[in-house]
Every structure is written in structure tokens, then in C-alpha cells.
Design a protein that fits this description.
By secondary structure, the protein is an all-alpha fold. 84% of the residues lie in helices and 0% in strands. The protein has helices at 3-25, 32-55, 61-87, 93-116.
């Protein structure tokens, strides 16, 4: 697979992940605390794909690397919010493990890309 194919596949993957995070957020409690976490995880989980798309349209190598590092950071933050959701007992590990594992995969990919630039 060449770089263009990889980029297109990863853009689709990050968009699919964003949809999963949005769906996950809809089942969080409608309490003040639940709304805060819902907003946080939705922002970070959808930001991964948006920033990756921007990275693919970067104006320079430095701009690309910066946006990839943002993707990495947002993936890490999304993992954090999933862990908080489980620790507050709002959702069980079983209900979030798919999203958590997907997020771990994205974090590894973006870390690898960022380290190779």
C-alpha cells in the first residue's frame, strides 16, 4: 500500500472512530458531570480525524508533523475520558472496550508517524 492509499484508509478509520465516539457519548448520563465528559470525549474523539485530514493537506513538513502530534494528543485524551467513564461506573469496560482498543490503535499509529518524521 502506498502513502496515498494509507492516508485515505486512515482518514476513513478516524472518521469511523469519530462516529463511534459520538454514539458512545449519547448514552452518558444527562447530569452536569455527564454533560462535561460527553462534551470532552466528543471534542477529543472527533478532533483526531479532523486534524489528520488537515495534516494531509499541510503546507509544510513541519505543519504536517505538528498536526500529527495534535492527533496523537487527542487520541491520548480520548483514552483518558474512556477510562474516566469506566471508573465512574457510567459504562462497563465491556461497553467501551472496542472504542478504547480502536483509540489505542490510532494512538500507536500517530505516535509512529510522528516519530518517523
Amino acid at each position: 500500500m502506498d502513502n496515498k492509499e494509507f492516508s485515505q484508509k486512515l482518514e476513513k478509520h478516524t472518521k469511523k472512530f469519530a462516529v463511534h465516539v459520538i454514539r458512545l457519548s449519547t448514552v452518558l448520563p444527562n447530569t452536569p458531570e455527564g454533560r462535561v465528559i460527553k462534551n470532552q470525549i466528543t471534542k477529543s474523539g472527533t478532533s483526531i480525524g479532523a486534524n489528520y485530514r488537515e495534516a494531509n493537506r499541510a503546507r509544510s513538513r513541519a505543519d504536517f508533523k505538528n498536526k500529527i502530534k495534535i492527533c496523537e494528543s487527542e487520541a491520548s485524551e480520548t483514552q483518558y475520558w474512556i477510562e474516566v467513564i469506566v471508573e465512574t461506573n457510567w459504562l462497563s469496560w465491556e461497553k467501551v472496550k472496542t472504542e478504547y482498543n480502536e483509540c489505542s490503535e490510532l494512538l500507536a499509529i500517530f505516535t509512529s508517524i510522528g516519530n518517523s518524521i
